[in-house]
Amino acid sequence: MKxxxxxxxxxxxxxxxxxxxxxxxxxxxxxxxxxxxxEVEQERIMAEMRKNGGGGSFPYVCIGENVVxxxxxxxxxxxxxxxxx
Length: 85
Fold this sequence. Notes:
Blueprint: E1 4-8, H1 13-24, E2 30-33, H2 39-51, E3 60-63, E4 66-69, H3 73-80
């Protein structure tokens, strides 16, 4: 299975839905709430997002080498090669 890493905001509805999507599918993921990180970590996260073509919007999901911004369950499934249940 491809590695899944995401950056989210703790108060964002779409970020919560993204986390729930992966939890319901029992797909392991790493997650950092950007707004709960310290300033140094926030700068590192934003630099990583920009380096990978992100515009600084959340949720920011890395699936393998691919990046998805926003809650895009069809794209998550496509990249993970899994089907809806």
